[in-house]
Amino acid sequence: MVKHVIIWTLKDNFSEKEKQEIKASIKEGLEGLKGKIPGLLGIKVYTDGLSSSNGDLMLDSMFEDRAALSVYASHPEHVAVADNKVRPYTKIRSCFDYEVK
Protein backbone atom coordinates (compact mmCIF):
# COMPACT_ATOMS: atom_id res chain seq x y z
CA MET A 1 0.00 0.00 0.00
CA VAL A 2 1.01 3.60 -0.56
CA LYS A 3 0.28 6.61 1.65
CA HIS A 4 -0.07 10.02 0.00
CA VAL A 5 0.10 12.94 2.43
CA ILE A 6 -0.14 16.60 1.48
CA ILE A 7 -0.02 19.72 3.63
CA TRP A 8 -1.23 22.98 2.12
CA THR A 9 -0.89 26.57 3.21
CA LEU A 10 -3.61 28.90 1.98
CA LYS A 11 -2.86 32.21 0.32
CA ASP A 12 -2.54 35.19 2.67
CA ASN A 13 -5.20 37.40 1.12
CA PHE A 14 -8.20 35.53 2.60
CA SER A 15 -10.06 36.50 5.75
CA GLU A 16 -10.38 33.93 8.53
CA LYS A 17 -14.01 33.33 7.51
CA GLU A 18 -12.98 32.80 3.88
CA LYS A 19 -10.24 30.38 4.95
CA GLN A 20 -12.75 28.29 6.90
CA GLU A 21 -15.06 28.16 3.87
CA ILE A 22 -12.18 27.24 1.54
CA LYS A 23 -10.97 24.48 3.85
CA ALA A 24 -14.50 23.06 4.09
CA SER A 25 -14.82 23.11 0.30
CA ILE A 26 -11.47 21.35 -0.20
CA LYS A 27 -12.41 18.73 2.41
CA GLU A 28 -15.79 18.11 0.76
CA GLY A 29 -14.27 17.88 -2.72
CA LEU A 30 -11.41 15.54 -1.88
CA GLU A 31 -13.32 13.28 0.52
CA GLY A 32 -16.05 13.09 -2.12
CA LEU A 33 -13.62 11.17 -4.34
CA LYS A 34 -13.91 8.07 -2.14
CA GLY A 35 -15.45 5.24 -4.15
CA LYS A 36 -14.94 7.05 -7.46
CA ILE A 37 -11.28 6.30 -8.21
CA PRO A 38 -9.97 2.74 -8.59
CA GLY A 39 -7.33 1.83 -6.02
CA LEU A 40 -8.16 4.68 -3.62
CA LEU A 41 -8.60 2.88 -0.30
CA GLY A 42 -9.12 5.85 2.01
CA ILE A 43 -9.06 9.62 1.98
CA LYS A 44 -9.40 12.13 4.81
CA VAL A 45 -8.78 15.87 4.98
CA TYR A 46 -7.93 17.47 8.33
CA THR A 47 -8.72 21.17 8.67
CA ASP A 48 -8.29 21.90 12.37
CA GLY A 49 -4.61 21.59 13.16
CA LEU A 50 -3.11 22.43 16.51
CA SER A 51 -1.41 25.78 17.04
CA SER A 52 1.96 24.05 16.54
CA SER A 53 1.05 23.28 12.89
CA ASN A 54 2.63 25.32 10.11
CA GLY A 55 0.10 24.37 7.44
CA ASP A 56 -3.62 25.07 7.11
CA LEU A 57 -4.92 21.65 6.11
CA MET A 58 -3.72 18.11 5.42
CA LEU A 59 -4.72 15.32 3.09
CA ASP A 60 -4.12 11.77 4.31
CA SER A 61 -4.88 9.15 1.67
CA MET A 62 -4.13 5.47 1.06
CA PHE A 63 -3.79 3.62 -2.23
CA GLU A 64 -3.45 -0.03 -3.21
CA ASP A 65 -0.07 0.59 -4.80
CA ARG A 66 2.03 3.10 -6.76
CA ALA A 67 0.04 2.46 -9.93
CA ALA A 68 -3.19 3.39 -8.12
CA LEU A 69 -1.60 6.65 -6.92
CA SER A 70 -0.65 7.41 -10.50
CA VAL A 71 -4.22 6.76 -11.67
CA TYR A 72 -5.51 9.10 -8.95
CA ALA A 73 -3.10 11.86 -9.94
CA SER A 74 -4.48 12.04 -13.46
CA HIS A 75 -8.07 10.93 -12.84
CA PRO A 76 -10.49 13.57 -14.23
CA GLU A 77 -12.52 13.81 -11.02
CA HIS A 78 -9.39 14.39 -8.93
CA VAL A 79 -8.00 16.90 -11.43
CA ALA A 80 -11.31 18.81 -11.35
CA VAL A 81 -11.19 19.09 -7.54
CA ALA A 82 -7.52 20.10 -7.60
CA ASP A 83 -8.03 22.69 -10.34
CA ASN A 84 -11.24 24.21 -8.95
CA LYS A 85 -11.10 23.81 -5.17
CA VAL A 86 -7.42 23.51 -4.20
CA ARG A 87 -4.91 25.21 -6.51
CA PRO A 88 -6.64 28.60 -6.77
CA TYR A 89 -6.50 29.03 -2.98
CA THR A 90 -3.18 27.52 -1.90
CA LYS A 91 0.30 29.01 -1.98
CA ILE A 92 2.38 26.12 -0.59
CA ARG A 93 1.99 22.37 -1.18
CA SER A 94 4.21 19.85 0.55
CA CYS A 95 3.83 16.19 -0.38
CA PHE A 96 5.20 12.97 1.10
CA ASP A 97 4.41 9.60 -0.50
CA TYR A 98 5.61 6.33 1.00
CA GLU A 99 5.02 2.61 0.87
CA VAL A 100 3.45 0.98 3.89
CA LYS A 101 5.22 -2.25 4.68
Automatic annotation (TrEMBL):
Q: Which residues form the Stress-response A/B barrel domain?
A: 2-98
Instruction: Write down a Pfam family by its short name.
Output: Dabb
**Coiled-coil parts of chain:** none
List the InterPro entries hit by this protein, alphabetically: Dabb, Dimeric_a/b-barrel
Task: List the PROSITE patterns.
Answer: S_R_A_B_BARREL
Top-rank taxon, per record: Bacteria
- Identification of the protein by name: Stress responsive A/B Barrel Domain
**Originating organism:** Eubacterium uniforme
Lineage of source species: Bacteria, Bacillati, Bacillota, Clostridia, Eubacteriales
